[in-house]
Predict the 3D structure of the following.
Amino acid sequence: MRNLIAKLAPKLALTAAVLGSGLGAAAADTANIWVRADGSNFMPKIVDAYNKVHKDQIKLDIIPNAEIIPKYGAAAAGGTAPDALSLDLIYTPSFAASGQLEDITDWAKSLPYFASLSPAHVKTGTYKDHIYGLPFSADASVLIWNKKLFKQAGLDPEKGPTNWAEIAADAEKVNALGGNIKGFYFSGNCGGCNIFTFTPLIWASGGDILSADGSKATLDSPQLRGAIDLYRSMVKKDLVPAGAQTDTGANFFAAFAAGNIGISPSGAFAIGALNTQYPNVDYGVTFLPGKDGGWSSFAGGDNFVVTKGTKKLAVVKEFLDFAYSLEGQTILAKYGSLPVRGDIAKDALKDLDPRYQIAAEAMAKGKTPYSVVFNDLINSANGPWTQMINEVFFGDDVDGAIANAQETMQSIIDQAPQK
Amino acid sequence: MTTIATTTAPPRAKKLVGAGRRQWIGLLYVAPAVALVMVFFVIPLGMTAWMSLHNWPLMGDHFYIGFDNYVAILRDTRFWNALKFTGYYTVIVTIAIFAVAFPLAIFIEKPRPLANLYRTFFFMPAVVGFASASLLWSWLLNVDSGLFSPAAYELGLIDKKFNLLATFQPAFWSIIAMVVWKVAGFTMIILMTGLQSIPQDLQEAAVIDGAGPFARFRAITLPLMRRTLALALILSVAGSILAFDQFYIILRGGPRNQTLTAVYWIFNQSFVSFKLGYGAALSMVLLVILVALSLVQLWLLRKPEGLD
């Protein structure tokens, strides 16, 4: 008998091991996450990399940018929301205010690198001193210029503009090349594009459009007026293509990529897109300057939020931990997102285009306005910000447009359900 | 009918016979249609009315607030401006559609060579969806990469490319042109059927009596087409009051919110600001306006006494 057991023991052990691993596999969890289409380059890559080396799996859905918010809202109402969501960071306060997100304060603060996470993301991810969102992907606004056109115009192709006067002068010189070539480009009817690329000019000069807590609109600052005059003067001198006036953002990047624009404010995303899709455009990257120098940047990108009551919290945490590892940050950087961990950003970017370093530096000091009604104020195609920028850049009544936007913005803030 | 059925059928016999049975069969026949109307119209309408009495955010809890949403509408100057613009657009576009569709209907109604080909040509844009047509036109109207402005520039007609969509008047008339292009063919077909239903002998008798073309149009064609005109008018007015796609896709309500229509504002409040309850209240207000307008039109175009 003992003999028999001795003979059978290895087999039994093997069977147990097989059963055990089988049971283990069955116990593996799959968490469902959503990302907006802006993340369609890097998100599948990092999910694949994670799934390859982890027992628990992530199922990824990519949702069109404009649909992700209503779709998530409908899914949350119907109890079918994904376990987690990579969400444009500016929405985090209003999402947190709605009570649909898991409070992840303790976990976030337990992360050893918590203090190195992008401050702009963490700020927007915090609501009433609780953390509901953590940084996931990042994009900073920068100024890009076309080196070939600079050279043709007799400018130093290696030196981008460092203040407003230089922007205007350089744009004018490039514009003088004539033909289809224009000095400057911006999307004149896109609120989101201009909060990203126009407000840093104001911030770098010491002004702002909203108070720090988002409770007051401050459009009456002289810095805003100055930045408006810079854009207006370029429009008046015909340095900007006629299509800019009605561009709702479709051409935000494409105009520069076509190679006919001297200078354009843009985002770090442009570096990856130009390198891979438009290798013939030789360009430089610099900071968005203030009136007399200095610089600022809008810190954009996504926060990672967790749906309240999800049963897959452990998987979601495991995935986010992976994304924050050097491996994860490198994958994100390689496919178009800046690193969100300041302490390892340099390492994550070391094998990539050196121009990313400027964007990463911009990101580290980047700023994001905080508001629970950001969409109503800024991003909405019919909101006060979009209406104002179109009027002040191209219209006749600058003061009226500013006053009108100031009043409308303040009334939207005052009517917001929670502040 | 029910009375007949119950009195003629013996009370003991549960089997339905005669008219009663026919009535049940009839109900069965219409049941699918009734179910569709219930599921896709009556129930959603009831839900919209119910939602309009709530503070109903996209996310989070909703709660009953009575008529607060309706009170808020009274102060919503953007909605009233949008409604005013919608009214202005409806009047202009309806006149424009009829001004194009009526002559076209008269043109293609008469037997002439290639009549079917003309009909097809004029009608074709009507089969394109509004969204697709809007996308097509937004390309045609694009100042840099479209057709009109670059072509005019290349031909030397203008010395600087002109952005049609940047200021109100050109943008508005561009939309009118697009809608007339898209809708006139459909209105033309409706008017053509009306024209064809006018008895030929009436026209001939009038000719014999010495009536000229204008007199015949005023005394015969117009009165006999009242019903057709009413149908075409109500379709055009209702469609225009609900206009959304072209303003959303081509203009985004711009330039500077001057072309926000009522439905666009409802969309904005519901799916940009995520105030679903308020959007529902706005929808109810628009529904009441639309029903009232349609009733007024029907009353104005009712058949005058003594005709026929």
